[in-house]
Amino acid sequence: MLMRTDPFRELDRLAQHLVGPGTWSRPSPMPMDAYREGDTYVVAFDIPGVTADAIDIDVERNMLTVKAERRPAANADDVQLELSERPLGVFSRQLVLADTLDTEHIQADYEAGVLTVRIPIAERAKPRKVSIGVGSGRKEISG
Q1: pLDDT tens digits for range 11-22
Q2: In degrees to the nearest 10, what's the CA dihedral of 104, 64, 49, 85?
Q3: Is the whole model's pTM more than 0.85, yes or no?
Q4: What pLDDT digit, counting tens, does each position of 41-51 carry?
Q5: Could you tell me which of 41, 45, 42 has the C-alpha nearest to residue 54?
């Protein structure tokens, strides 16, 4: 059997053990990627092992909050846990959204442990051409 060693894995596991699992009052962060795809901002959160009903997405003004909870698997009485490296508990991430995003039309999909949130750019924020009028004479403003 081939074994790969990672000197930092033990340190990460020890730190997680000391801090403990995330709770609703002190959640653990979840990794994410954010990018622009055409006229949409896309944010992808890694939360494997979480069921879709354990994910909560809220938008209040310009604050996007994603919370998820990974619960322990139900074990039978005759099952003895030998090793547990996957973190359990509550995971959360908050993002401040720009005013140029349309928070009324946010879409979210969850597949293969990745939550993908798509936020369209508001119409008022998209670039547009401004036409220039040509006047026939000089105009004065009186007042």
Answers
A1: 655 655 555 556
A2: 170
A3: no
A4: 999 999 988 99
A5: 45
Distance, CA of 106 to CA of 85 (rounded, Å): 34
| Tokens of residue 105, six digits | 């039309």
pLDDT higher than 80, residue 9: no
Residue 103: closest CA among 114, 112, 95:
95
Q: 3-state DSSP call for residue 16? A: helix
91: closest CA among 60, 61, 56? 56
The type of residue at 7 is P
Write out the two tokens for 94: 């908050």
What is the distance between the alpha carbons of residues 94 and 73, in angstroms, rounded to a whole number? 27
- Residue 52 Cα distances to 43, 55, 89, 122, 129, angstroms: 17, 6, 15, 28, 43
